[in-house]
Amino acid sequence: YQLRRAYEETEAAILEKEERKAELEAALADPALYTDADRARTTTEALHAATAELEALYARWEAVAEAVAMREG
């Protein structure tokens, strides 16, 4: 039960982080963003952080999925 819950929670976190990443990418695609260098920099940094967090979440998701598959046979 705990593994299944961890799987579902990780999956939900991935979906949330993917949405955030898409928002950041859309913001960075807007030329108006670059009229404010500080905002452009912080948005770029946030995108890098979201990407790194997603990589970690996907790694966790895969590990939990394998454990669930092994347990459920």
Q: In a nutshell, what does this entry contain?
A:
With 73 residues, the protein is mainly alpha-helical.
Q: Care to describe what's here?
A:
The protein has helices spanning 2-29, 37-72. The chain has 73 residues and is mainly alpha-helical. It has a single domain (2-72), classed as Orthogonal Bundle (Helix Hairpins). Helix 1 (2-29) packs antiparallel against helix 2. The radius of gyration is 16 Å and the shape is rod-shaped.
Quickly list its features.
single chain, 73 residues, mainly alpha, Helix Hairpins
CATH architecture: Orthogonal Bundle
Count of β-strands: 0
Annotated CATH topology: Helix Hairpins
Cα radius of gyration in angstroms: 16 Å
Helix content range: over 70%
> Total domains, how many?
1
Oligomeric form? single chain
Order of helices and strands: HH
* Head-to-tail CA distance between termini: 14 Å
Specify the number of helices. 2
The average pLDDT is: 96
Overall 3D form:
rod-shaped
- CATH class identity: Mainly Alpha
Biggest β-sheet description:
none
- Fraction of residues in β-strands: under 5%
Low-confidence runs: none
